[in-house]
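testing teh design pipeline on a random one, pls ignore if ur not involved
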């Protein structure tokens, strides 16, 4: 149980650090508008994860009760999807583009709402949760609904810590990215390796 949760936390950490639309958005808001605005965006994004966790917890738990074979099919889909994401990252440009132009000035409440809506209405987040979480169920005796919520809350906690750090240290992080072009390449390959390892972990 502990090993599974630790593996999940490490994988979540790497994925949260790796460049993506969410953390780049947080970074840009912090650079242009200030740390407080970046943090408001972070809390909005993280809050949205609770919706995806709830849908996953009750939906997949019902499927597990109906059929173990169907649940295996979900895990197989998850592994294939993660390998697909790894391939997409491999084919993508490694450079990190920080666009600070035309960043509209918004209140912290507006940014919280925007972050929440961005997350909740993004179907890719639902698919990612469906691919990522089932392989890390950690107990035969604890309800799968509870397990999914534990994983969801752990995902939210780890992401909150990393995204908040990005918001607070936005100036330093952006400067490092601009100074060292190899950072984005290292993060790209780290992300690819993590996706492949998770896919293998799910399958075995």
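output:
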């Amino acid at each position: 149980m502990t090993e599974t949760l630790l593996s999940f936390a490490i994988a979540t950490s790497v994925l949260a650090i790796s460049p993506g639309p969410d953390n780049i958005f947080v970074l840009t808001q912090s650079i242009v508008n200030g740390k407080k605005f970046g943090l408001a965006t972070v809390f909005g994004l993280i809050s949205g994860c609770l919706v995806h966790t709830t849908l996953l917890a009750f939906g997949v738990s019902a499927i597990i009760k109906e059929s173990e074979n169907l649940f295996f099919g979900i895990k197989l889909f998850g592994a294939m999807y993660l390998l697909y994401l790894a391939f997409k990252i491999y084919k993508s440009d490694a450079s990190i583009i920080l666009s600070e132009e035309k960043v509209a000035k918004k209140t912290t409440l507006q940014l919280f709402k925007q972050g929440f809506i961005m997350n909740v209405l993004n179907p890719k987040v639902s698919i990612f949760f469906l691919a990522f979480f089932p392989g890390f169920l950690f107990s035969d005796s604890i309800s799968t609904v509870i397990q999914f919520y534990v994983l969801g809350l752990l995902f939210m906690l780890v992401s909150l810590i990393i995204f908040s750090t990005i918001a607070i240290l936005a100036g330093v992080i952006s400067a490092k990215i601009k100074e060292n072009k190899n950072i984005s390449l290292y993060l790209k390959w780290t992300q690819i390796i993590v996706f492949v390892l998770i896919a293998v972990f799910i399958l075995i």
